[in-house]
Amino acid sequence: MKLVIWDFDGTLADTRPIIEAGMDHALQVLGLPGSVRDEWLKYVGLPVEEGIQRTFGPLGLALETVLPAYRTFKHAEHEHLIKGFDGITELLATLHGKGILQAIASSKRGEPLRRQVAALEWAPYFHPLITPDDVRNAKPDPESILLILAQLGVDPASAVMVGDTPFDLEMAQRAGVRSVAVGHGFYDEKALAALEPMGYAPDVAGLADILLAWSEA
To answer: What pLDDT shows up at residue 216?
Structure first.
């Protein structure tokens, strides 16, 4: 294993509090019941625009109506809610020390992703950071992973994708890259198992066991 490609939300960082706060704000602005949030959460891991379309389209609401309401939530002012999962900083440092390359393939836009990675003091660990701003086709299309592999000159067989959503795992599958599913994010083990990841970790400790063993292979 030469390269670990990470998802961000729900994999590296616990962003559920800020995501739910933003959703609740939008629903309040739109005058919709809070129960809609449960459906919206099913699409975390996709670009926000697609999640909105899948959630609100069946309700007869267009993206052009929902997205502005969502964006009135001041996300940058609430980023203190974002925390790295326990043990993840240590794992990143250990992999870095072993000479393992690390990159991020996220559905979050580039500006907030770079800002949040810097705030968590993780910027030295990751290159590149690929977002929907950098590709024509976002997750679960494999373009993000293929771009990372091309930039770093790494063969798919030497890379691993770590993610907490079926969209991450499908992206890896379509790119010909092994994947590890983590259970501390937005999806349960059953939903992740359907995409047949090479490994499953319920927490960071379990993830470290898998990745460190593979780093020796």
So the answer is: 84
Taking the alpha carbons at both ends of the chain, their separation in whole angstroms is 7
pTM of the model: 0.92
Q: Where are the alpha helices (DSSP H) in 15-72?
A: 16-30, 36-40, 48-56, 63-71
Sign of CA dihedral 97, 103, 109, 114: positive
3-class DSSP assignment, residue 11:
coil
User: Of 79, 97, 117, which residue constitutes the final position of a domain?
Assistant: 79
Same domain, yes or no, for 150 and 49?
no
CATH number of residue 181's parent domain = 3.40.50.1000
Residues 138 and 201 in one domain: yes
List the beta bridge partners of residue 179.
Answer: 161
Regions in the chain scoring below 50 on pLDDT: none
* CA dihedral sign of residues 206, 155, 2, 124: negative
Q: Let me know: does 118 contact 95? Beta carbons within 8 Å.
A: no
Residues 98 and 137 in one domain: yes
Residues 134 and 199 in one domain: yes
CA distance 13 to 83: 6
